[in-house]
Amino acid sequence: MDVSTRQAKPTLLLLLTLCLPIFGAQHALALGSQAKQEPLSVSTLNHSLEASLSTQIPHNTPTTPEALAWLKEAKQGDAEAQYNLALLYLNGIDVQQSHRSAYFWFLQAAKSQQADAQYNLGVMLENGLGTSKNVTSAVFWYKKAAKQKDLDAANNLGVMYETGSGVSQDFAKAAHWYRQAALLGNALAQNNLAVLYESGKGVDRSHNKAFLWFLKSAEQRNSDAQLSLGAMYEYGLGTPVDNARAAFWYEQSARQKNVSAQYNLALMYENGRGVKQDYSKALQWFSKAAAKKDADAQNSLGFFYQYGHGVSQNYQTSYHWYLKAAQQGHAEAQFAIGLHHREGLGRKSNNEVAAKWYLRSAKQGYDFAQNNLAILFHKGEGIKQSFKQAHHWYLKAAKQDNATAQYNLGTLYEKGLGVTLNTQQAFHWYEKAAKSGYRDAQFNLGILYEQGIGTKQDYTSAINWYLKAAKQGDSFAQNNLGALYQNGQGTHKNAKKAAFWYAKAATSGNAVSQNNLASLYWKGDGVTQDTTTAADLFFQSAKQNNADAQFNIPYFFEQGIAVQQDTEQAIIWYRKASEQGIAQARSKLYDLTKVKKHSR
């Protein structure tokens, strides 16, 4: 049987990593408050700190009375005035904005143990604001602030240890600092600590503890924690599965413009999980994420427009969104672009362009693209025919349990195309595809068992696989199943069951089954004898060029059974059967022609 192209599959539940992201540690950029601190040992900072202390007082002075008063007090060493003045310079309030001036006054206040100033000084050093970037010095000041229980400093210190920025990477110390801030209610630290519990870095892995910390952070409106909490509810991690709660938390995060949450919420609406299925709402959330260049959302929009979910079907628009995702390297979208060119969806069919897109996707390991690329090599469509290349790509997809590729690979081995003919390998791949429910493979496996090709002949197994394919509507399997019941191979003879399966196939237009069922009606075997039905079925089969039926139908015209006697018609049908190699038809044709000539 011929190889076949698979259609684009739905973009449902693409990757767990998208639904349950393990986010990198989050920094706090606002002012913090309280956290515990471990003993400091940073001797390498002496030189850089001495250089900082020698910085001259900035000349761009404020103009308002209150700011001038702070400047006067700051110059006299008042730490709070120094800190407030730094904020004015940082934000450009009542004075020209100057990160350098802000850095200077934060440094003066930090020397006086002002915790907020120490924290903000760390932020400026880490990001190179008003001074040269120096992550090691940032760690020093974060520790100073954390020692005074500044929560944001403790969280940022955790980030530095988690990422190995300014210190040696140490997940246990990261967890320690996150915990200090998390216990006192810092939402970022709570989320970061939950991530460590989720991944088991620096702590014993625990979905339960991860869930609890994500919940605390989510309740404080941390959008990333809300997203992760939604995923934990959806997949039952640390809590029973609850799709309604999953959708709730996805929506809380999505409304804060979290792109991943928008995508996940769209999936919930698409599949009706936790919410009533609503393609229009799914389209709305996919669109929001797609507008922010989320490739998965763009791919999903392409799918919606391709199949008309929640919107009028539009191949041009589906192509537009697939292309945006494909250009970002999205393998499934690249496959879909290839399919649009292959099938001529909204454009003229172009197998050459299809092959290029299939190749991009196939190289990323996308099994549907690998199978379809192999088909183009197999048929030589849009690309030079190469059974060797077809085998290469079928095999890659087949190893990913792609049933279509497994079936197609079996056909190469059965026919010896691009490989040495090997019926055992054909049997092996047909069996894999058949066990996945692939109908054509189930039929072919039945053939191999029936004929003992690539395996020991086994009529019982043949019946088993024909039956599976027959129940999926395969008329060839239905016919062969009927034949085994009629002949009593692998089972007791049962003309009634034979007639049942022949009738199933005959209704689907299977010419062989029409002829076989007609024979049963002619004989009254397994059915009530009915020559009219027999003649009708023989005629249907004969018109489809079935040689046996073309040989059988003339008898009815010869004898005038169920039809008007007509020697001319008998001759026509015997001639058709004779041309297909039926020896008895030649003999009958000779006899009828001879009789006709004699009668003249």
Keywords:
mainly alpha, disordered N terminus, elongated
Summarize the structure.
The chain is an all-alpha fold. 67% of the residues lie in helices and 0% in strands. 50% of the residues are buried.
- End-to-end Cα distance, whole Å, is 50 Å
Largest sheet: none
Number of helices: 32
- Classify the helix fraction into a percent range: 55-70%
Q: For the residues shown, what is the average pLDDT?
A: 90
Low-confidence runs of at least 5 consecutive residues:
1-24, 29-55
The computed structural class is: mainly alpha
How many strand elements? 0
* Percentage of residues in DSSP E strands: under 5%
Radius of gyration: 38 Å
Characterization of this structure:
- The chain is an all-alpha fold and 600 residues long.
- It has helices spanning 16-19, 46-53, 65-75, 79-91, 99-111, 115-127, 135-147, 151-163, 171-183, 187-199, 207-218, 223-235, 243-254, 259-271, 279-291, 295-307, 315-326, 331-343, 351-363, 367-379, 387-398, 403-415, 423-435, 439-451, 459-471, 475-487, 495-507, 511-523, 531-543, 547-559, 567-579, 583-599.
- Helix 4 packs antiparallel against helix 5 (99-111) and helix 27 (495-507) crosses helix 28 (511-523).
- It starts with 15 loop residues before the first helix and ends with a helix.
- Mean pLDDT is 90; it is low at 1-24 and 29-55.
